[in-house]
Amino acid sequence: MVQHYNPQIHHRRSIRLKSYDYNQGGAYFVTICVQNRECLLGTITNKRLQLNEYGEITDQVWNHLPHHFENLEIDAAVIMPNHFHGIICTGLVSKPPNFPNPPNPYVNSKCFDIIF
């Protein structure tokens, strides 16, 4: 059964910027949550995530996205037991020559290098 969005029931609010064109290239932070926040992607054992079959599938799908979508790069991602975070980069071009590097020495991100 498909459940359609009903603002009277779901009370979702958009966090999108009203004036921003999301069709343009950029780096986008994506979060995907498992329905009902069930821990279906793995378990935490000894402070480490142990992916199960569904977590492994999530990882495989994430890593194959660039093979299915032209002009898409993936960047940092993390799988948690009941949700997933990732950064996708679309339509980016290389940084201009002599453009300064980001000030944060801890940033290790392909997309960040492209943007800055």
Automatic annotation (TrEMBL):
- Would you say which domain of life the source belongs to? Bacteria
Q: Which SUPFAM superfamilies does the record cross-reference, listed alphabetically?
A: Transposase IS200-like
Name one molecular function that GO assigns to this entry.
Answer: sequence-specific DNA binding
Q: Which GO terms describe its biological process?
A: DNA transposition
What is this protein's name?
A: Transposase IS200-like domain-containing protein
What organism is recorded for this protein?
A: Coleofasciculus chthonoplastes PCC 7420
